[in-house]
Specification:
The protein is about 35% helix and about 35% strand. The N terminus is likely disordered. The protein has about 110 residues and is of the alpha/beta class.
Length: about 110
Amino acid sequence: MRAEFGQMYIDLGAEKILAAERGSQKIAVEIKSFIQNSPISEFHTALGQFINYRTILAEQDPDRVLYLAVPRDTYSSFFSLKLIQSIVVENRLKLIVYRPEHEVISQWIS
């Protein structure tokens, strides 16, 4: 799926966006690794992308729900900060917490 966003094109079929189903629910998952030196900078980027993707999905595939997937260690440390929790709630982020070493999902947070 490709959507025009001003001069920028967002490719929802890109490597880090996965379309799937969870039971009867259609979902899209934006996977982030948070391996850079600045978690807050990565979070800002992920948040902006998430909001853009969610807006495009609402127009082009309104039945699909977008999730942001983050590593368990990042969720336990960085996402436990009060400011980050407030931003997650304020922006209605749906999260998947995953264990990269085992490639399994630990938790779904809606």
